[in-house]
Request: fold
Amino acid sequence: MPLSPDEIQRLARLARLAVSPEEGEAVRAQLNRVLGLIDEMRAVDTAGVEPMSHAVASAPGAGQRLRADEVTEPDRHAEYQALAPAVERGLYLVPKVIE
Amino acid sequence: MLNSTLSELAGALARRSISSVELTRLCLERIARLNGALNAFITVDAERSLREAGAADERRAAGRAGSLTGIPLAHKDIYCTRGMLTTCGSRMLANFVSPYDAHVVERFAAAGTVLLGKTNMDEFAMGSSNETSHFGPAKNPWDTARVPGGSSGGSAAAVAARLAPAATGTDTGGSIRQPAAFTGVCGLKPTYGVVSRYGLIAFASSLDQGGPIAKSAEDLALLMNVMGGHDARDSTSLERAAEDYTRELKAPLAGLRIGLPREYFGAGIAPAVLARVREAIAWFEARGARLVELELPNSRLAVPVYYVIAPAEASSNLSRFDGVRYGHRTRDYADLADMYCRTRAEGFGAEVKRRILIGTYVLSHGYYDAYYLQAQKVRRLIARDFAEAFGRCELIMGPTAPSTAFALGANRDDPVQMYLNDIFTIPAPLAGLPALSIPCGFDAAGLPVGLQLTGNHFTEARLLGAAHRYQQETDWHRRVPAATPL
Amino acid sequence: MSWEIVVGIETHAQLATRSKIFSGAATAFGAAPNTQASAVDIALPGVLPVLNGAAVECAIRFGLAVGGTINRRSVFARKNYFYPDLPKGYQISQYERPVVAGGSITLAGGDLQKVVRLTRAHLEEDAGKSLHEDFHGMTGIDLNRAGTPLLEIVSEPELRSAAEAAAYARAMHALVRWIGICDGNMQEGSFRCDANVSVRRAGDPLLGTRCEIKNLNSFRFLEQAIAYEARRQIEILEGGGRIEQETRLFDPERNETRSMRSKEEAHDYRYFPDPDLLPLVLSEAQIERIRGTLPELPEAMRARFVRDYGLSEQDARTLTADRALAEYFEAVANAAKDRKAAANWVMGEVLARLNVADATADQSKVKPPDVAALINLVADGSINLGTAKKLFDERWNAPRALDISVHDEVVVRDLGQLSDASVVARLVDEVLAANPKSVAEFRAGKDKALNALVGQVMKASRGKANPAQVNDLLRRKLQG
Reply:
């Protein structure tokens, strides 16, 4: 089912991407083309198939490696905050958050 | 010297017939002369390169040189490099100077290689032509009106034009192999988990894998000896004993079973590509390899599956670019939501936005099962096809891409046509398998054709061995584009 | 027709690890802004999460303690939403497969005796903090807390009153501290509760529309907020209105809940398995090793106190309210000759002072052997109870722990009980002679006058006489 202009705006809001109504039409046409491509896999019978979320070729049953509970990271906030658009008194500044 | 392989360069450095500073200067001069036309590099820092080359020469003088000490190379601009711009080809990170080094960057620094600079790429590695780069497309040295492929197009173009002896790349759906094929160089995508992703800016985490781009299979093996290996900072990095990727370079071809999937030789492939690939396969057969006809019935679904999984992961991975802690922030905004939306709309290019929107859609409420979960299941079917195939052969051969390099702008308005370019490179990363591309001839327009070798997990050394044998008796990989003469 | 209140609680317990759940940054409270926010915590491009084994161990301890199922395979998922205190734009949590499923906790106290089932408990990372004080109309973001390990514990909607909900929260708070996975500090946000509240007509099998109340950082607030919210919902329904499903914030100053500025759209978190983290696979051996390190749990200990020490249910419950107190009591009881006295001392002298000082039993300056010694000295008549309490008080208030044992102190300071009956008799005679007024009053029927006389004798003995003996002797002399 092709995406409607409203759906494009809903996705844009979810993804925090400003998409103007003018851009929206072009984006919609292209997304619908891509979804048309994707549709090919939707009809495949996958009953009983375990989803594959990782491509790690480890021994069956192997799982997440665990880290020792040690503090290894020094304070580097000055260096990190040199990258930030707006900082004051060690805090990152953003437009007012309203709850 | 500029057309020498890494082992030849390493030999020259070891014999002191050239110093690292001299070699680095040669590369820098060539970059200064040719990069304007090729746009292969986003960042070059000659001073830093020469400083590192000087340190490498001192290290050699002190008797502490390793096999690649003093060799200049380039990193794709997706690898974080401390103190140097790391843009990922995006306006979002146009001013981002990483405060840390990627694992791969650390490894090469420890080996004493010299960093020439950072290579151009499709924005956030999303593209097959290098045209989505915020810094303009890199050009194909064989024909600068054509694309070098992508996303690691800058690295491939740099190696093809002999601006750098070797370079790193990353491959998510073909981003190392397709540009290698388009530019007549060699590129390896290792088994998922062999090269640490730490410091590699994520596109699609379950598919992304770093790998080398170089002039020969032997060079790829030497680079893999540095890049590969366990890293505790990446939870998907495999804990395996270090391996020597050169160990099978001399392995005989006799008895090798080469699988030929029917799907890789069907319609839609340029005749010249098909012809060169068949000639290469015949070469292997003539040296004792056995050809095995195969089917990979689900591989036709690889592109659709990839365009669900990769955008889904990307939509989440790219959420961190919000204009708060680093990167671009819009100048004017009404409130927080507006700041986010404008920052991201300005910072990301059209293809990245498209993929974020698709990824958001396939994960969203009501669509997850039909798209994302279904894609993960079909992904399993694709992986199973390979598992069965590798019961009957040691490696699979076919074309790397259905065509040779296409013209700049050819697929600009049709993302789907662009996506279909990766039809042969997408299956291997979906299954986590290693695959490489080597040059196997040219089409009538003089554009290189790539041969792809895909192996079972952890069989990089075998793939490299087979490719090396081929390169012992052919010289496609030694050819240099006429536009960039030595 | 009456209304039934239905409450389920979601608890976020901050796990007592040194480093964060996915990075090696410190978790200590109160550091200067962003000094404990590492590259992973601020989500620099290219960084990756690596799971802290201690956080996993905490989750397993909890699962075993509540008798839940430890899932041998659980999965970390990404919960996607944009917020400035969420640096990656997603929170790593567990969604479809949590590490702990099921389990239960017993509420007991007063008339209440109830088993509350748990839905699940899962590992996740905390977000940072937004500081709303004025930065030229901007908000400041501190990411020190980002990536702190949390165990989110979800109860079934089985609580039926504000008081029950508060009892549940208290029991959960005691349990997580008991098994050592959370320091329980509510002021610092180490233990936070959200309540899902709905109401329905008694007997209605269907649940009403619920509201989630956030910002409940004390048990009192939790109880007040639920009581308020239930009243609010009942009023709306009785007025013919409908309940809007929403998130509400409790305002303790006004003692009411208010709607959080409603989001412009419904959340769509787009959960999916985190490709950066493999499934968490736990072996039987790992789980059994952790089981072996679990302390005796409060329910078991309470039953044992009743059985082994002859305590009442109520006393056993008081003494097992927290693990430090229970261990303190047990140490006293095992060294004291009189177990009933041990319970009385710990619940009386010790607990009263701990409550005033807002301290836990392991922080008590008077250690269990000293309390046992005091009890034993009273029991064998070496000192009287008043002396014992005075000694306890002195020790409690001493600037630092005394080196001298209770026993030696009694000898050195000559505080032993006067045992010579003739000396006591002489003191009694002297006091009677010196206080004719009190004597007269007693004889006139004012029983209270006797207390004054006992006090005088005790004073004359410098507190060393046995008060019971003095009382006896006085009575005999006055009536004789």
Notes: Chain C has a mean pLDDT of 91. Residues 298-412 of chain C form one domain.
